[in-house]
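In the design runs reported in the main text, the only information available to the sequence generator was the tokenized backbone. The following block is the verbatim input for one such run; it is reproduced so that readers can re-run the procedure and compare outputs position by position.
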């Protein structure tokens, strides 16, 4: 079942704010929260993430029905990519080195910002590249 394209973009906007606060404060706890949000989105799809729930219950009823839909697999893959970067960042912030936490969190922030501001999902594009490569290999 296809999903409302505005949901993942909303999630990316919230993620952008969360990750920016992590970079400013160095809060491993806040990055742990974001890691959990990515994990839930990767495991159950973006609709099952906390930001997907917030979009579905608080935002979508106020902005009306969607005009566009997209397949759920690319955003779900993007959540898994975000999970990897947030996990690496969490290791950096908690166990060191600090630069690892900063770099991984900064990379995740850049990807989330691109999606939130411009609707360009790096993880989704990675998904499509992987799909093309695996289909040709079969």
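Verbatim output:
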């Amino acid at each position: 079942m296809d999903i409302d394209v505005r949901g993942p973009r909303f999630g990316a906007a919230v993620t952008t704010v969360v990750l920016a606060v992590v970079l400013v404060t160095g809060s491993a706890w806040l990055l742990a929260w974001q890691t959990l949000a990515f994990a839930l989105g990767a495991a159950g799809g973006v609709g099952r993430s906390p930001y997907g729930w917030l979009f579905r219950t608080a935002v979508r009823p106020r902005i009306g029905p969607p005009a566009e839909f997209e397949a759920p697999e690319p955003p779900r893959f993007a959540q898994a990519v975000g999970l990897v970067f947030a996990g690496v960042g969490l290791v950096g912030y908690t166990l060191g080195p600090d630069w690892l936490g900063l770099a991984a969190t900064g990379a995740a922030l850049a990807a989330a910002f691109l999606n939130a501001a411009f609707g360009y999902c790096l993880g989704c594009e990675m998904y499509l590249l992987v799909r093309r490569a695996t289909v040709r290999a079969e």
